[in-house]
Design brief:
Length: about 220
Protein backbone atom coordinates (compact mmCIF):
# COMPACT_ATOMS: atom_id res chain seq x y z
CA UNK A 1 0.00 0.00 0.00
CA UNK A 2 1.03 3.57 -0.67
CA UNK A 3 -0.43 6.83 0.56
CA UNK A 4 -1.45 9.13 -2.28
CA UNK A 5 -1.98 12.67 -0.96
CA UNK A 6 -3.71 15.05 -3.34
CA UNK A 7 -4.12 18.78 -3.07
CA UNK A 8 -7.62 19.83 -4.10
CA UNK A 9 -8.04 23.38 -5.48
CA UNK A 10 -5.90 23.63 -8.60
CA UNK A 11 -5.11 19.90 -8.59
CA UNK A 12 -8.04 17.50 -8.29
CA UNK A 13 -10.34 20.40 -9.08
CA UNK A 14 -9.98 23.50 -11.22
CA UNK A 15 -12.68 25.18 -9.13
CA UNK A 16 -11.37 27.74 -6.66
CA UNK A 17 -13.70 27.54 -3.68
CA UNK A 18 -13.08 30.99 -2.24
CA UNK A 19 -13.72 32.56 -5.66
CA UNK A 20 -17.01 30.66 -5.99
CA UNK A 21 -17.96 31.85 -2.51
CA UNK A 22 -16.83 35.38 -3.33
CA UNK A 23 -19.16 35.51 -6.32
CA UNK A 24 -22.02 35.41 -3.82
CA UNK A 25 -21.05 38.72 -2.22
CA UNK A 26 -19.11 40.52 -4.95
CA UNK A 27 -15.59 39.74 -3.73
CA UNK A 28 -14.55 37.16 -6.35
CA UNK A 29 -11.90 39.37 -7.99
CA UNK A 30 -10.27 40.14 -4.64
CA UNK A 31 -10.38 36.42 -3.79
CA UNK A 32 -8.66 35.46 -7.05
CA UNK A 33 -5.92 38.06 -6.57
CA UNK A 34 -5.17 36.97 -2.99
CA UNK A 35 -5.19 33.29 -4.03
CA UNK A 36 -2.78 33.88 -6.91
CA UNK A 37 -0.33 35.77 -4.68
CA UNK A 38 -0.37 32.94 -2.14
CA UNK A 39 0.09 30.19 -4.73
CA UNK A 40 3.11 32.05 -6.11
CA UNK A 41 4.54 32.29 -2.56
CA UNK A 42 4.25 36.11 -2.49
CA UNK A 43 2.30 36.04 0.80
CA UNK A 44 1.89 33.30 3.39
CA UNK A 45 -0.93 30.85 2.90
CA UNK A 46 -2.26 31.50 6.42
CA UNK A 47 -2.39 35.24 5.75
CA UNK A 48 -4.14 34.72 2.43
CA UNK A 49 -6.70 32.32 3.84
CA UNK A 50 -7.61 34.58 6.74
CA UNK A 51 -7.89 37.55 4.38
CA UNK A 52 -10.25 35.62 2.10
CA UNK A 53 -12.34 34.37 5.03
CA UNK A 54 -12.78 37.94 6.30
CA UNK A 55 -14.17 38.94 2.90
CA UNK A 56 -16.90 36.33 3.38
CA UNK A 57 -18.12 37.60 6.74
CA UNK A 58 -21.92 37.73 6.79
CA UNK A 59 -22.47 35.52 3.76
CA UNK A 60 -25.64 33.47 4.20
CA UNK A 61 -25.06 29.76 4.82
CA UNK A 62 -27.51 28.87 2.03
CA UNK A 63 -25.47 30.88 -0.47
CA UNK A 64 -22.27 29.22 0.76
CA UNK A 65 -23.88 25.81 0.18
CA UNK A 66 -24.77 26.90 -3.36
CA UNK A 67 -21.13 27.76 -3.97
CA UNK A 68 -19.91 24.44 -2.55
CA UNK A 69 -22.34 22.70 -4.90
CA UNK A 70 -20.55 24.24 -7.89
CA UNK A 71 -17.20 22.68 -6.99
CA UNK A 72 -16.28 19.97 -9.49
CA UNK A 73 -13.52 17.44 -9.98
CA UNK A 74 -11.33 17.65 -13.06
CA UNK A 75 -12.16 15.27 -15.92
CA UNK A 76 -10.73 11.86 -15.11
CA UNK A 77 -10.08 12.60 -11.42
CA UNK A 78 -12.87 10.40 -10.07
CA UNK A 79 -11.80 7.44 -12.22
CA UNK A 80 -8.18 7.82 -11.11
CA UNK A 81 -9.14 7.99 -7.44
CA UNK A 82 -11.23 4.85 -7.84
CA UNK A 83 -8.41 3.02 -9.62
CA UNK A 84 -5.96 3.90 -6.82
CA UNK A 85 -8.34 2.70 -4.13
CA UNK A 86 -9.20 -0.49 -6.03
CA UNK A 87 -5.47 -1.16 -6.26
CA UNK A 88 -5.25 -1.01 -2.47
CA UNK A 89 -3.73 2.43 -1.99
CA UNK A 90 -4.82 4.89 0.69
CA UNK A 91 -6.07 8.08 -1.00
CA UNK A 92 -6.27 11.29 1.01
CA UNK A 93 -6.98 14.91 0.15
CA UNK A 94 -4.84 17.52 1.92
CA UNK A 95 -6.28 20.94 1.27
CA UNK A 96 -6.24 24.38 2.80
CA UNK A 97 -9.69 24.67 1.27
CA UNK A 98 -12.96 23.67 2.79
CA UNK A 99 -14.21 20.17 3.52
CA UNK A 100 -17.79 20.86 2.50
CA UNK A 101 -16.80 21.79 -1.05
CA UNK A 102 -14.57 18.72 -1.37
CA UNK A 103 -17.37 16.46 -0.12
CA UNK A 104 -19.88 17.94 -2.55
CA UNK A 105 -17.54 17.43 -5.51
CA UNK A 106 -16.84 13.81 -4.56
CA UNK A 107 -20.54 13.09 -3.96
CA UNK A 108 -21.38 14.49 -7.39
CA UNK A 109 -19.05 11.95 -9.03
CA UNK A 110 -20.01 9.06 -6.72
CA UNK A 111 -16.46 8.51 -5.53
CA UNK A 112 -14.92 8.42 -2.04
CA UNK A 113 -11.47 8.97 -0.57
CA UNK A 114 -10.09 7.53 2.64
CA UNK A 115 -9.60 10.86 4.40
CA UNK A 116 -9.95 14.60 3.91
CA UNK A 117 -7.57 16.85 5.85
CA UNK A 118 -8.90 20.37 5.46
CA UNK A 119 -10.18 23.61 6.96
CA UNK A 120 -13.70 24.95 7.38
CA UNK A 121 -15.60 28.22 7.56
CA UNK A 122 -17.61 28.44 10.79
CA UNK A 123 -21.23 29.58 10.75
CA UNK A 124 -23.16 31.47 13.41
CA UNK A 125 -26.78 32.53 13.14
CA UNK A 126 -26.98 31.20 9.58
CA UNK A 127 -24.09 33.32 8.27
CA UNK A 128 -20.33 32.87 7.85
CA UNK A 129 -18.46 34.48 10.73
CA UNK A 130 -15.46 35.65 8.68
CA UNK A 131 -13.19 33.26 10.56
CA UNK A 132 -11.53 30.07 9.34
CA UNK A 133 -10.67 27.01 11.40
CA UNK A 134 -8.68 23.85 10.76
CA UNK A 135 -5.32 22.10 10.88
CA UNK A 136 -4.03 23.43 7.56
CA UNK A 137 -4.09 27.15 8.25
CA UNK A 138 -0.81 27.52 10.12
CA UNK A 139 -0.02 23.81 9.93
CA UNK A 140 1.98 22.70 6.92
CA UNK A 141 1.36 19.76 4.64
CA UNK A 142 4.74 18.14 5.27
CA UNK A 143 3.92 17.65 8.94
CA UNK A 144 0.42 16.53 8.01
CA UNK A 145 1.77 13.94 5.56
CA UNK A 146 4.46 12.70 7.95
CA UNK A 147 1.92 12.30 10.77
CA UNK A 148 -0.53 10.62 8.44
CA UNK A 149 2.08 8.16 7.18
CA UNK A 150 3.13 7.32 10.74
CA UNK A 151 -0.51 6.82 11.75
CA UNK A 152 -0.97 4.29 8.95
CA UNK A 153 2.49 2.70 9.37
CA UNK A 154 3.59 3.64 5.86
CA UNK A 155 7.22 4.61 5.18
CA UNK A 156 7.70 8.07 3.70
CA UNK A 157 9.36 6.61 0.61
CA UNK A 158 6.00 4.99 -0.11
CA UNK A 159 4.11 8.27 -0.09
CA UNK A 160 3.09 10.28 -3.14
CA UNK A 161 2.16 13.96 -3.10
CA UNK A 162 0.35 15.72 -5.94
CA UNK A 163 -0.05 19.51 -5.86
CA UNK A 164 0.35 22.79 -7.68
CA UNK A 165 0.83 25.74 -5.33
CA UNK A 166 3.27 27.09 -2.77
CA UNK A 167 1.36 25.63 0.17
CA UNK A 168 1.93 22.18 -1.41
CA UNK A 169 5.70 22.66 -1.44
CA UNK A 170 6.29 21.21 2.04
CA UNK A 171 4.59 17.89 1.26
CA UNK A 172 6.13 17.72 -2.21
CA UNK A 173 9.57 18.08 -0.64
CA UNK A 174 9.13 15.19 1.82
CA UNK A 175 7.08 12.70 -0.24
CA UNK A 176 8.65 9.66 -1.84
CA UNK A 177 7.29 10.78 -5.22
CA UNK A 178 6.39 14.42 -5.88
CA UNK A 179 4.10 15.25 -8.77
CA UNK A 180 3.35 18.79 -9.87
CA UNK A 181 -0.03 19.31 -11.52
CA UNK A 182 0.60 22.34 -13.76
CA UNK A 183 2.70 23.69 -10.88
CA UNK A 184 3.48 27.33 -10.20
CA UNK A 185 7.03 28.42 -11.02
CA UNK A 186 8.01 28.42 -7.35
CA UNK A 187 6.85 24.81 -7.03
CA UNK A 188 8.25 23.20 -10.16
CA UNK A 189 11.83 22.63 -8.84
CA UNK A 190 10.47 20.42 -6.03
CA UNK A 191 8.65 18.09 -8.43
CA UNK A 192 9.99 14.74 -9.62
CA UNK A 193 7.55 14.87 -12.51
CA UNK A 194 5.08 17.41 -13.91
CA UNK A 195 1.71 16.62 -15.52
CA UNK A 196 -1.16 18.62 -17.00
CA UNK A 197 -4.03 16.11 -16.99
CA UNK A 198 -5.44 13.26 -14.96
CA UNK A 199 -4.81 10.90 -17.87
CA UNK A 200 -1.14 11.82 -17.84
CA UNK A 201 -1.05 11.41 -14.07
CA UNK A 202 -2.46 7.92 -14.47
CA UNK A 203 0.31 7.15 -16.96
CA UNK A 204 2.91 8.38 -14.46
CA UNK A 205 1.45 6.14 -11.77
CA UNK A 206 1.66 3.19 -14.17
CA UNK A 207 5.28 4.05 -14.95
CA UNK A 208 6.15 4.01 -11.25
CA UNK A 209 4.26 0.72 -10.74
CA UNK A 210 1.69 2.42 -8.54
CA UNK A 211 -1.02 1.30 -10.94
CA UNK A 212 -1.23 -1.47 -13.50
CA UNK A 213 -1.92 -0.35 -17.07
CA UNK A 214 -4.16 -3.40 -17.52
CA UNK A 215 -6.60 -2.31 -14.81
CA UNK A 216 -8.08 0.64 -16.72
Amino acid sequence: MRIIAFDFDGTLSDSEMTVLLGKRNGTADEMADITERAMNDEISYAESLRSRARLLEGLEEELAEEAYGEVELRPGAADLIQRLRDYGHHVAIFTGGFKRGVERALEKEGVEVDDIVSNHLPVKGGRLTGDVEGSLIEGTKDTALENYAAEHDVAMDRTVAVGDGANDLPMLEVAGLSVGFVPKDAVRPACDVVVASMDRLGNVFEGYDILDADDE
